[in-house]
User: Which sequence fits this backbone?
């Protein structure tokens, strides 16, 4: 069965790139509604933005959705991952600015906020997308692939010159609350040189050592260091789940990311839905629904962070 939020939940923070304060409220929505953003600061024109892959711009630093009127919301990947990981299929997200609050740079505060309010079952089956044959996109030495599987499995590999990160790989079956337990508290990361370059160009103005893991060669500059030895690849998997959630329903397949990022995952979804015979929509029976992310999530397994 589809799920929505039991009650509304509000988050306050700053936008990663603008540094401007932003308030975002997640509200319940009817079965079949899907996930929509509403820009409450837009008084004229279309303020509604559907969370769907063909609304995404090809941007390297985050996922940005833009509607037909040019109204946008960016850095949606962390809240989309939280909704998918908590098994929420329908929600209205009201936001008073162009960026989702970055909070601590992960999804864990979103997950804890959603699950503290509770998830409400709805009387409609979940529409999922079953991968029928492999689809791959490649760009500049990076690759993203979807292959058939009877559940969502995320497999990721990264390789960074900075010794603090280096080469990391991980594979996770996303059933049984895996996202909340294993990935939700993993923060975005970057190199100190990249931070300086972005800020000199008017980006990452809201970035701090408290909402991103910043590395410089072998050194981790953020207080307390990494939450996990492989936090970097875990965060890339978090991003991948959030970007895949823009399919409009859960994916039944194996995602393989090799140095992939937001724009490549979005290109993969575009190719998937444009390739005849590569994917089919399925209404989930109870057995299939039990394999979806969000099923089996246990409150005590959600990480607690300072």
Assistant:
């Amino acid at each position: 069965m589809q799920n929505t939020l039991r009650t509304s939940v509000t988050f306050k923070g700053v936008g990663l790139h603008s540094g401007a304060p932003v308030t975002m409220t997640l509200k319940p929505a009817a079965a079949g509604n899907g996930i929509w953003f509403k820009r409450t600061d837009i008084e004229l024109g279309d303020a509604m933005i559907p969370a769907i892959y063909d609304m995404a711009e090809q941007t390297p630093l985050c996922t940005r959705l833009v509607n037909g009127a040019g109204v946008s919301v960016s850095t949606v990947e962390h809240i989309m991952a939280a909704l998918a990981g908590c098994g929420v299929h329908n929600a209205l997200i009201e936001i008073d600015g162009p960026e989702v609050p970055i909070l601590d740079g992960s999804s864990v505060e979103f997950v804890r906020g959603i699950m503290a309010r509770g998830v409400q079952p709805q009387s409609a089956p979940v529409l999922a997308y079953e991968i029928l044959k492999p689809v791959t996109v490649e760009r500049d030495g990076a690759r993203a692939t979807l292959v058939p599987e009877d559940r969502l499995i995320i497999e990721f590999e990264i390789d960074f010159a900075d010794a603090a990160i280096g080469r990391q790989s991980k594979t996770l079956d996303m059933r049984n609350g895996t996202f909340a337990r294993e990935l939700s508290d993993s923060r975005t990361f970057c190199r100190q040189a990249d931070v300086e370059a972005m800020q000199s160009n008017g980006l990452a103005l809201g970035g701090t050592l408290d909402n991103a893991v910043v590395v410089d060669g072998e050194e981790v500059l953020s207080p307390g260091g990494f939450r996990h030895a492989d936090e970097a690849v875990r965060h890339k998997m978090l991003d991948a789940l959030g970007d895949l959630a823009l399919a409009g329903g859960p994916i039944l397949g194996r995602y393989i990311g090799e140095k992939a990022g937001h724009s490549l995952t979005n290109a993969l979804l575009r190719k998937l839905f444009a390739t005849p015979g590569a994917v089919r929509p399925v209404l989930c029976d109870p057995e299939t629904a039990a394999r979806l992310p969000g099923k089996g999530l246990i409150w005590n397994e959600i990480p607690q962070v300072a």
